[in-house]
Amino acid sequence: MKMYKVGGAVRDQLLGLPVTDVDWVVVGATAQDMLDLGYRPVGADFPVFIHPPTGEEYALARTERKSGRGYGGFVFHASPEVTLEEDLLRRDLTINAMAEDDDGHLIDPYGGRADLNGRWLRHVAPAFAEDPLRVLRVARFAARYAPLGFRIAPQTLELMHTLSASGELQALTPERSWKEISRALMEPTPRVFFEVLTACGALGVLFPELETLGDSNLNSLQLAAQAEQPLTVRWASLLLGLGEPAVLALSQRFKVPRECQELAQLSDRYAGQACRGVALGPQPLLDMLQAFDVYRRPQRFEEFVQVCALALRAQGQQPDPLATQLHDLAAAVRGVAVKPLIEAGFSGPALGEALKQARLHAVADYCRGAA
Ligand code: ATP
Ligand code: MG
Asked: What residues does the tRNA nucleotidyltransferase/poly(A) polymerase RNA and SrmB- binding domain cover (predicted)?
């Protein structure tokens, strides 16, 4: 049995980037051999194991063959006879199809090193076209490595085009798609992800709602990445101005996490009003703060302020003083204390009403001061 480091770890090491998770391929072993050595299977019938002390993944060398539509429509063949070269052949990109042995020697049958140096994202074999997830993966790698000068080889883009036109993208599960999309959004140049999807015809299949968008949403998204904003802010920035039905449709299509959907919906609903700042007037401002539940979810409103600020910057406008105003307004209503009202004798529904009035006064006071 021989074990090799493979995939992202080898690639990133050669690029001089930090390596976070290491994957291994095992040649010449059976599943029983792995169990005997104390490795834990990740699933009942998948030839991948976890090494308990390190938590790293060890996969038996395998070949794959397409058997149906979409991700999962694969039969694999893992056996001690499968060679390292055969295993590397089933991988998506040449830069992901390199291995390293114990002595640090590189095994690179498909030109990964040359493509790393030439900054090419290039498919390993025509079988690339058997898995639609690879369209998203390649777009994601482009979003990650574009700053280093990487681009997609023309023949690979052509295969991505074919996949997009084949109807296979629709067969991807929401979970699998969102995993790639969310990771792409968190890359350094997320706008490249959407540019690649556009270039290969996948945007209209996966995100038809985005096709009519102007450049400013991608600019906002890109600024959000530069400011290292969280996923929620990036998702909301991308969808801002699409209208709630589209925001909802997209969020449900990919079963996005609740925080992402909520921020995107609320941002879409309130950004226009929020952009007027104190000019909006005390009551609508308070209603907006209530809608965000700024008392229990202060972070969510701060993220909304970021979404607004990024949208303004994307249109070449100054985000201040608006961002400061919104931030201070939230602080003003949150600063209204309940205790004095209770001490003044309010209770039950009357207390709720008094609290509302006190908050409205706080907003009105702030507006007067800021005007
Ligand atoms: P990351 O840094 O994002 O983890 P990675 O290259 O390690 O990048 P993984 O998803 O961890 O990506 O997969 C490990 C390796 O398995 C890849 O480098 C690639 O060789 C192979 N691989 C993963 N998913 C696919 C796929 N859908 N098609 C072909 N090969 C794949
Ligand atoms: Mg990995």
From this structure: 149-211
